[in-house]
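tool=predict chain=A
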Amino acid sequence: LQRATPEDPTKMGVGKAIAVLTSGGDSQGMNAAVRAVVRVGIYTGAKVYVVYEGYQGLVDGRDHICQATWESVSMMLQLGGTVIGTARCQDFRTKEGRTNAACNLVKLGITNLCVIGGDGSLTGANQFRSEWSELLQILVKAGKITAEEAKQSSHLNIVGMVGSIDNDFCGTDMTIGTDSALHRIIEVVDAITTTAQSSTIVINCSSSCHSHQRAFILEVMGRHCGYLALVTALASGADWVFIPEMPPDDGWEDHLCRRLTDQRSLGYRLNVIIVAEGATDRFGKPITCDMIKNLVTKKLGFDTRATILGHVQRGGTPSAFDRILGSRMGVEAVMALLEATPETPACVVSLSGNQAVRLPLMECVQVTKDVTKAMADGRFEEAVKLRGKSFESNWNTYKLLAHVNPAEVKSNINIGIMNVGAPCAGMNAAVRSAVRTGILQGHHMLVIHDGFEGLAHGHIEPISWAAVGNWTGEGGSNLGTKRTLPRSMIEDISLNVAKFNIHALVVIGGFEAFVGGMDLVTAREKYEELCIPIVVIPATVSNNVPGSDFSIGADTALNTITTTCDRIKQSAAGTKRRVFIIETMGGYCGYLATMAGLAGGADAAYIYEEPFGIHDLEVNVEHLVEKMKTTVKRGLVLRNEKCNPNYTTDFIFNLYSEEGKGVFDCRKNVLGHVQQGGTPSPFDRNFGTKLGSKAILWLTDKLKECYRHGRIFANTPDSACVLGMRKKALVFQSLAELKLNSDFEHRIPKSQWWLKLRPILKILAKYKVSLDISEKTIMESIIKKRGVI
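tool=predict ok
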């Protein structure tokens, strides 16, 4: 199935009606999806209805199905749960209930249904669709609808979006609500870690000082899926994780106690164990928090605490990722509905990497059931594979880093790790992962303090497994970082590379790390000591490193901006109409301004990559003035710090203040360095952990390739790479190749994927801009693609 390409998307929906409902358990981000469906539906010319209380509202009809307006979905982006309600509906499970639902839709001329929920809700929607013709015949016979009405509503189109905090739906990388749930969990883990470390009891003895050992056991949601538990374990550096997909081997009790004892001997005072609520042993017997608590207390005598998080994971405001995910999926869902034909199978819209995808609904449901069956049959390796590449990658990284015993055979390889550029959240997670993976490979790991300056001045020291223990959740850069480029210190750097016998280098940082890496490659011609493999790991809030769609630190900064925008807007609650002008960081890269605009519901986001003039500013101001004359009371305008040297934040503030007189007043905020601070988000911890580990494994292979005549010699272009995420995969790209795609004056890549999201930002802000739908979104078969396992 491919997208149609009509001349004008604003006329695609004329004469059509769409209904949107949320069903099953609620999750954060559902409101963003509802808002996007309503607004994009109206943009295409369709009538859009919201169904209150899920399928129950569909069955009951009347005032449960209401036509939505643009303004009716304002100020809901930042709200958790679902404002249109959700309910478990027994009536819809019956033929009579579904017949009533069909009648209510036909009477309103609705033939397009968007369902946001879990696999049960989406399976119900597909059954409803498959029975549609039969239900219409029943209604015509009963005289409830006319033959003409049945003819006009002869086919029902269904599109699903998966809203579930468990991330238990196969075929999709992330379901709506999962990232927000991880935020809630990590907040708790950080709080527990802090209190455990500060309240450690120290017993003074005549000969030495012993710390009292503590263990914390945390149960997270996931009755059939261990995604939350697994990512929490990765993001918190937990000592053990129990998940349904991969029960522990027989004798796990002794193994667990050995692991905790080993950690104790390495100097750790705190152990963290994560348990998914559906965790079992190999025979299907549940493994509970209390069971583990009793085991650790009796066998080891540790002071053990168990915490069951429960529904706190469903609550709170949605993360920036979930708001953007919901908004993007809402757009894709409307397009899928309006392009559907009677032959089109019901589909689910989702993200794979950063790509919007459409997947056949029932294939996804089937693979989800296959996972449950594989677990029930004891085929656990297969269950992990069926969960998808993202889950499998997380599991493999966890297994690798969960080892405590380093390799017995040493490689005599020294790998240096440094941070370069401005500090950002997640850098420490990447360093920790790289250090531990290197030690497991038998390498000697060296850390370089203060970037290239530290390398030139010999601020280099070995680092141990235990030294990076709690680094995953720490913000900033523990190694110290500077923006200085190596070109003025190349000779000193080459001398220290030789002095400390460094065989490979991991450079974690922003655009300076990228340029510095190229400086080292250029200097290889003159300095043979620099003929070593080099990996650059992108880490900057600006997300401007060529070779990667995402940088470590950008997600944390985005969440900081989004939360701050929420608070700033809330500060005006109860006052007259107000517009906020907010300046974001990013240098010349408009990623933060654009994505924060999507997540915060901005009316405009000014960036360098999309030049604007006085006419554009005039259009924006007039548009906002007209909008504020309706029931809308808040306006949000974002400006990237270097978008234009003349149209400054003060200029834009003064312009909006003057033109808005009598309609709204203005306030301005420059967010500044708050965007670089804070503890890393779950995504940045996980992303940093994966990149650090993958970089060392690649270097290990590359060093074997480059070993000649008893020494390392790497001077080919592919021996100096950026490790980044491209669409759906982590890939290595040579610095030489990426140089061609870089704008060095403005420190940005020449092509950036997120610019394609700019029209969505404008459409959701009620601009009648054209949405480019020429790029085809093909429905992918996940069963054929996966093949036989």
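The CA atoms of residues 400 and 441 lie 10 Å apart. The radius of gyration is 28 Å.
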